[in-house]
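Hey team,

Filing this mostly as a record. A colleague (T.K.) asked me to run one chain through the structure pipeline before their review meeting, and I want the input and output archived in the tracker in case anyone asks later how it was produced. No errors, nothing strange. Just documentation.

Input sequence:
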Amino acid sequence: MFFKRHKPVAATYSEQLDELRSAGYAVTPGAQGTSTVVQGKFGAVLVEGAGGQAAIHCVGLELQGEVAELTDLGFQKIFQTASGRRVPARAEHLKELHEFDENLRQALGLTSLYNEGLGTTNEKHLYDRITARDAGTQPKPWERNQSARRPGASAPAGSAPQRAGE
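Output structure:
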């Protein structure tokens, strides 16, 4: 009358790597407990995440043993390695990268999010025009120009006059 639900068994990091090998991925151990997974032209760096399961550190084009991450320059997307090598990203690269990422997530049993399923997303942007965006609150325009005000220039209407020594 009552049915007992079976708890899903979470595979360990090494079991997940074995499953990837059997699915046709080339898995090589990397530095500091990471593993590089390659299939075709694309690769990913995996790390052991919380709970002993695999987590994807980065996904991208495999270039001479390095994984080149997708980077947005504002006017063009490129693949850039940690050593600085850059390759322009073409439309077929983006389609194949998206397919590789989805297949890898499915093979690992990871969640695939809706916004990532719409197309290729990337975390690196090198075209940001706002300086120090991530450094906290930005100075207001009227606070930025206080030190740049010329001596003897009149203060904006409604502000207190500056006294010497302040």
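Quick notes for T.K.: The mean pLDDT is 80. Strands lie at 26-29, 35-39, 42-48, 54-63, 66-72, 77-80, 86-88, 124-125.
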